[in-house]
Automatic annotation (TrEMBL):
TM annotation in the entry: 46-64, 70-88, 217-234, 254-276, 605-626, 638-658, 670-694, 706-725, 732-752, 764-784
Lineage of origin: Bacteria, Bacillati, Actinomycetota, Actinomycetes, Mycobacteriales
Name of the protein this chain belongs to: HAD-IC family P-type ATPase
Keywords assigned: Membrane, Translocase, Transmembrane, Transmembrane helix
UniProt domain P-type ATPase A: residue ranges: 103-199
Location(s) in or outside the cell: Cell membrane
Keyword Transmembrane belongs to the record: yes
Principal subcellular localization: membrane
Lipid bilayer topology: Multi-pass membrane protein
Keyword Membrane among record annotations: yes
Species whose genome carries this gene: Rhodococcus navarretei
InterPro entries for this protein: ATPase_P-typ_cyto_dom_N, ATPase_P-typ_P_site, ATPase_P-typ_TM_dom_sf, ATPase_P-typ_transduc_dom_A_sf, ATPase_P-type_domA, HAD-like_sf, HAD_sf, P_typ_ATPase
PROSITE patterns, per the entry: ATPASE_E1_E2 (PS00154)
Amino acid sequence: MSIDADAQRDTGLTEAEVAQLRAEGKSNDVPARASRSVRDIVRGNVFTRINAILGVLLIIVLSTGSVIDGMFGLLIVANSGIGIIQEIRAKRTLDRLAIVGQNKPQVRREGVSKQIPPDEVVLGDVVELGPGDQIVVDGEVIETASLEIDESLLTGEADTVHKLEAAQVLSGSFVVSGSGAYRATKVGRDAYAAKLAEEASKFTLVKSELRSGIDKILKFITYLMIPAGALIIYNQLFSSGQALRPALNGMVAALVPMVPEGLVLMTSIAFAVGVIRLGQRQCLVQELPAIEGLARVDVVCADKTGTLTENGMRLSELVLIDQPDSGSATAALASLARDDPRPNASVQAVGEAYPDAPGWTQTAVAPFSSAKKWSGLSYGEHGNWLLGAPDVLLDASSDIARRAEDAGSHGLRVLLLASSDRSVDHPEAPGVVTPRALVILEQKVREDARETLDYFASQHVEVKVISGDNAVSVGAVAGSLGLPGGNAPIDARDLPEDSDRLADAVAGSTTFGRVRPDQKRAMVGALQSRGHTVAMTGDGVNDVLALKDADIGVSMGSGSAATRAVAQIVLLDNKFATLPYVVGEGRRVIGNIERVSNLFLTKTVYSVLLAFLIGLSGVLSQIFHFEPIPYPFLPRHVTIAAWFTIGIPAFVLSLAPNNERARSGFVSRVMRLAVPSGLIVGSCTFISYLLVYAGPNASETQVTQASTTALITLIMIALWVLAVVARPYNWWKILLLAGSVGGYLLLFAIPFCRTFFKLDPSNVGATTSALVIGGIGIVLVEVAHRFGSALRNRQYKT
């Protein structure tokens, strides 16, 4: 299909041409990067290493004809089913929110400009650009008004690039200042950003200590299982002299509990439920581990406008300077507002106050940028007009600058309307500036701002206000909200360039004004250099670099397309007050995963220890010629042992409230409780079994009583581990513990359950020894926990 480019320069494509191009497959059909298909989700949850291990063990048990002992096979169904359901729910939530928060480019068709989804852009479309817009497809510039593009997300080069007509623009870059339009020359997978995405991983995730920690633990467990499994297989099949069926059942019973089958499942559920809960608050999580990152945040850097104050403004007062009447000033303001193709909130407020423009013809334009802090238009014989920051355009010691600062000290936003002696696009602009009027704007402080700041203070999270506005104005707003240090704002133009001195200055203050985009980025890096985990919130194009470098970038839904593209989290409701819920959800997810990890890994440790001890007895029996000891449990025993000590409690605890800030060292903290607890459970269970084991010639009743004795000891100590993990207590945790104890009492009390699960606590002497050894184990677990807690607290203080 041939399209006349010159004819389409102003009006864009026709609907017929668009339909034909779409039919030819020349549309921007790049799939969403963060979405897994349902097929991938099912495959990812079914074909796992843990399911494979359990599946092999299930086949072995079923081959012996013992269907009851294969109950652990239900874990495969549960692991897969629950994981699939929760992840699909999370996917649907993310997909729905992604559509709401989607960057919709402004496309010109048949002379009419309209917003469309990015996948509806076709080859040859004319896409209009303004400050903050992200370029969605590659193209060639056909219109430009001081158009400056930042390509740092693609090239790493932070300097902006001035684009003239016929210049190439690449998808993934964004507009810093100016306006223009470009014609799409490459769409879909041919576009530059799409090619980069294909070369990289489909899912680019933030760093996750939790994910890497669990992977490390699983790898360690795999290494332990190999020798332990070999020993138990040797003992059960060759040394113990048992028949094949009981030998295989004992081998499976030893190997099944070594697998932390619920750990990965509970982690997936916790993340998925976190995504769904945040989605209900109109919070789009673009990268799942961002939930974990927020749990570790100890510094939140926030802008003033749109964060502490509402986005909208209104003109409060126009203060004329050395003018007998307001005619020329109001005419200039009306013209500046009318001729700005993408007015920001300040210019919109001016336009609402002065809607009747005089009809001047512009001859030159200088778009606003965060670096220079002013914008301007030249109108030939009507003069060169500037609108910007008084403390930038004027001598700070002048009377007008002092008047502006006084107004700003009351939390007002002040702009200077001025005229210049040269065209605004002159290389030496603004030249000689003549002040004409102070434009005083009111910003409404958000009703929930103080409550939000109080929450972060209570959670020991520092809030630092980093704004491009006048420092005095920023300090007035921050101070009125009770932010510590808000009344002593720092002007970023006075900040040192040296990284160490900058880190000291940023760490020692909370409120900063007149901050340039490159300084925002440097300040985030300075805080990170001092060991802080930094979340950066923003909505403007000047926030992009800092958002990209922060540990967690948070964008407002109404923010520029560029900020939404680089942020890990988008607050679609544009409320800073939503952030505490996001942080709280992150803490809940991470804290609860750590809790349940303690339970699953304790089970793994005591299972490996029991397997080693039993297997070692088989090896030593061959050397010293004594009867080997068979594994004490049937697969059904290890299944019920996990019901109320791990399975149900872990599910409840993984979804419970938890406000403790996440800290680094996940693996060491978990192992500090799980290893000693597991060693105590395994040792006490083995001793309890040895005391009542009646030898290879024991009757079936004696074998059942010995297994029951060991099981009672194991359950007692494992329940206490659960009690330790559940601290601090509240009513529902006490109910959970009571229900777990009650569940086991019913299993041992109901005759049908005793028969079905082969339990026999009727031997008073054996049961008494089980209770005594279990009590000793409880004391040892408590001592180990208190010692570990004291050691951890000492490390935190240091």
